[in-house]
Amino acid sequence: MIKEVQPERPFWPHDIRRLLWMQGLMNASHFMTIPLLALYMSANLHFGAAALASVMSANLLSAQVLPLAAGAITDRFGSHRVITLGLLLRGLGFLGFSYFEGVSAWVVFAVIAGTGVACYEGGVYGLFGRQPKESHSALFASNNQMLNVGAVVGPTVGGLAGLADIRVAFGVSAILFITLSVVAHRSKFGSSVSFRRQSMIESLKAAATHAGLWRLIVVSLPWFFLFPQLYVAFPMYAGQLAGPHAASAIYVINGVAGLAFIILAKGWMTKVNPASLTTWAYLGAGASFASLAMLRGIEWFLLFIVAYSVVETILLPTLESMTASLATEGSQGTFFGVMSAVGALSGAAGYYVGSWLILNRTPVETWLALGSVGLLGFVSSVLLLRGPESKALVS
Fold this sequence. Notes:
Layout: H1 14-44, H2 49-65, H3 67-77, H4 80-99, H5 103-129, H6 136-164, H7 166-187, H8 200-208, H9 211-226, H10 233-242, H11 246-269, H12 274-291, H13 298-326, H14 332-360, H15 363-385
């Protein structure tokens, strides 16, 4: 079973610490535009639910399926070039969003940007997974903390740029990603970390036949379904309640609440059994989503965002830490890639279902349906992560 660890304050190599700062800058650039994406397609480009979900799903599928290859490439050749290429592709994708308006063009650039995500995250999490196992909880909590810093700064800058023209925000984000790719190229991330140079076939076989990884993937699927609502259902619902500027407020609150919680609770999170964290976080997700069926108004929705942010801040680093702990030596990037690729199927379903519910069903039906997914995660984590069955997680 996944063991509870009482870690000391870990020491990470210099390039790992620099990479954590890079994560904050990357997420700031990401969240400069993401709060505006769904609303821009809906209000400005007049994309229907199917077109909007197709763009978002094209981005998601390329971002989460391609890490299967990117992770294996990282395990074989290292992270430096993969991280650099990923940032460059993301910049090119957002540059395309700023110039083109057709559905087909947006799907193409969504794939380019998503491929960039796949390359970047394949390199980053391959490096993180190679750190000592006893430091994983603290490392992924610190990673989440830096991501939340970016989630606070990004929407603020993006909102200001969007006052002139939303396409300006896309362009600024593109320039930042391209600049970061130059920084990553010069920094040579991963130079202090030894890679086993395992063949891609061996890495894929190790991940594909690991029973514990597949148990964890099953537990993760409800979260992969719910997480995309942050980019589709949440901004669209906020727009319905209080206009387009409410979307940026969602991401600022998400970042601030997540950052505050991780600062206050990071020490506690590294000491609590990750199976328990996952179980109770899912219960909180189910209850908070379902509560919106009864509580109407923008003030209640923003309060829900605070609760959601706490759940997100617990689940994301906990699932990442468990994945890294399960990974066999030399296959860390591939384990994250398999988790991401399978989760993409659930995430794509989340984009289509979430946008369809918001546009076609009542709030009661929408939020009760999403709440039931959170409760499904609670049940699956109880069955697969707790008790004697959890021993298979490290088999």
